[in-house]
Each structure stands twice: as structure tokens, then as C-alpha cells.
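User: Predict the structure for this protein chain, please.
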Amino acid sequence: MMKSMYTTQMSHGASAPCANAASSCAQAASMRSANIALILDAIIMASIIICGLNVRLSILAGSLLVLVLLVVLLVCENMNAPRMRKSA
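Assistant: Here is the predicted structure, written as C-alpha cells:
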């Protein structure tokens, strides 16, 4: 009797309903899609941050270039300016 119960359990032990293979496969697939969505979300957020930094960096570089140009023009103008004569 014990041997027949054991063989019956063993024969059904590997079937999909007994092992809950269908639910575990669906669960694994949903976890994979959730992981893929999380990775894609991280990539999109990183690209938005990088683009934002590039814009800010280009604005900063442009303003620094204008500032350096203004300083150079002021220095050149002061070098060519006539000096005041001393009054007697």
C-alpha cells in the first residue's frame, strides 16, 4: 500500500499542475518584464539628465566665452587710450 502511494505521488509530482509550473512561469515572465521596464526607465532618466547637463554646460561655456571676450576688449581699449597730461 505504501509503495503504491509513493509511486502515484512520484508519477504526478513532475506534472505541471502539481508543480505549479504554469504560475511560476507566468510569475517569472512578469518579473522579467518588470526588470526590463525598470532598466529602460533608468536609461531614459539618465539620458534626460545627461541632456540637461549638456545644455547647462553649453550655456555656461557660452557665458564664460562672452565674459573673457569682454575682459579682453576692455584691456585692449585701456591700452590704446591716450594718457592724461600732467597739469602744470
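The mean pLDDT is 75.
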